[in-house]
Amino acid sequence: MRILYFFFCVIYTVAHSQYKQLQTIIFKGTDKTDILPVVALGEPIHMSFDDLTNLEEDYYYYIEHYNSDWSKSNLFQTEYISGFDGQRIINYQNSFNTLISYSNYSLTIPNNQIRITKSGHYKILIRNSQNDLIFERKFVVYEPLAQIAGIVKRPRKITIGDERQRIEVRVNINRNKFIDFEQRTSMSIFQNFQWSTQKTFKTPDFQNNNQLIFNSDEIQFFGENEFLFFDTKDIRSSNNSVREIIYETPIRMNLYTQRNRQLRPYTYNPDINGDFIIQTLQGTEPEIEADYINVDFSLENSGALNEVYIIGGFNNFEVNAQSQLKFDEQSNIWKTRLLLKQGVYNYLFVHKNKEGAIEASSINGSFLNTENAYQILFYYKDFDLNYDRVIGYQKIHSSDLGL
Description:
Immunoglobulin-like; single chain; five-stranded antiparallel beta sheet; five-stranded mixed beta sheet
């Protein structure tokens, strides 16, 4: 009987990981609270991920340079990296004392093979030994040439004042160092490291000497709501986010069913703006000792919801078949199950309407007082090489509202 059980576990692990081969992709810069790396030129970036096949497969990384609108730049590879990409990721460890076996791979750039030499938008691509693209992630490298200050304020229009946040930005820079400065600069802002929220502004509203001021009414975002959270670091007991634990392989945790928060008043709930942290109480090295748990999510149906998805840093905020919930007509509840590594997670339910647009506020509401992080990037299109340099970066929080 024990042999049959072991055989079942092996078959389960291999079959499941063929569907979702790589899991728990963590990509950080020097600030570990950031969901994705925005680093100064020369600072390191770190990536890790798990391979649930546990076969010690070979994976290779590639670096690509992009413009501020995420179109491919005109730079040759030798112009933005020193060394060579396409190198095999050689650092990995196998899991220890876990029900679900996996291999944990890690990578740091710069290393002995490669160094990034230009600022800008980048993608790192991970391929297998057959050169198939397994996944990609975006990151930003900047030059600290511009001093940026920003503040979050209430919108000027009273009718939207309780649901949106307006951003005012001041950029201080010695423009004499740049050719054709006014025509070649722009600014982008995005919310909680989600590139889908990126907004770009070409012309400042005011400028004097070496200061640019952006404060138009167009620089505003829906405040949305605080992220939901759950905690799976302890597989032995439930908590205020986990309703039930079922001891099978893998272990299954049922979360409490969430309600639609659109018509509910705002309640402050500290979050990590969509991020996740791998932790386990059953070991001291969570990278290789945290186990994989089947997590059951559910959302009460209310209103005319067309399609519902779950997003967070754990799935790169991607809306796809893997993140979609299914509607159970009998219980009138939206449901899904995800295999996730033990830890603390933030997440949101979002709605895709009939026009195909993604809405968060139709499920979560939108409030001025929601704590959000905003990332501000300042660009200069290089006169000689004609690529978008990132010459300034600042992160601000709406917790210090300038009301």
